[in-house]
Design a protein that fits this description.
about 180 residues; 11 helices; Serine Threonine Protein Phosphatase 5, Tetratricopeptide repeat; flat; mainly alpha
Amino acid sequence: MNLPEELLKHPHFSRYYRTWNKNPLSLVFVPLAQICREQGLLSEAREICEQGLVHHPHSVSGRLMLAKIYFDLEELDQAKKLAEEILQEMPAQGEARLLLERIQRCPRAELVEASTPTREELIQTKGITASLWENVTMAQIYADQGEVKVARQILDRILTRDATHSKARQLREGLK
């Protein structure tokens, strides 16, 4: 990836970029993509986000960032699809809901299938009452920081809600 020199001098970007180069499995891909997006480097932001999501496909923040990048690139179908997937898992995710509203107000919105369920419909369909922070990504962060007990508790709650959640089960089994 060819990044502009001024971006590499950006204090936050350079710190995150060094971390990501040392450990491509790191979750710092989200702030890296955000900085690229803010700088108008959308193809770079997309590439970083897509690479990060290969290792963290359940990352809500990563998928939301990619949805925003798709929106900026006017790839509305892709943006809508990701935002809806997030809302299926987390109906109270406000940023995903706002993004869907922006997509629907977009001049090209008539080209995007208008099947966005309301927050209430999503909650009713999924029966979700979990806290927003109770997700696999947060459990992984706690585990990486040595807070294994907290990570296990989060994963146990996730698995109580959805016993088939393969990523949560895999991480939980790895923490025994």
